[in-house]
Amino acid sequence: MIDKIQRPGQVGQSPAAARKPQKNAAQGSAFSAMLQQRVGEKQAGINFSKHALARAEQRGIELTPTLMDKLAGSVEKAQEKGANNILAFDTQQAFIINVPYGRVITTMTQDEMKENIFTNIDGAVLL
User: Is the pTM of this model over 0.70?
Assistant: First the structure.
């Protein structure tokens, strides 16, 4: 018969309990708050990649609730048509959005749209 060898500190502890990471209440509540925020973003229908958030900030693009609603509506329309990557734009700004994930990949202003070629998109939505 083979006996299991236990590591120091595990004597009397079940193998399942030994694998569970220890956490304190502060970590749990911080994680819970972050999870709730992420769930809320997903329910809103649109989220931004780190790159897109940085570009929006650098370029002075204000992410207002009205704009977020328009972008979410663009994603819904694109999903109905079966698009995967879209350009959502108006006269002032443009957003490249991955439709299946509802994720804005990058943003740009009107000046940056001039003489720019948009590739790897299969749809465009006017905001």
Answer: no
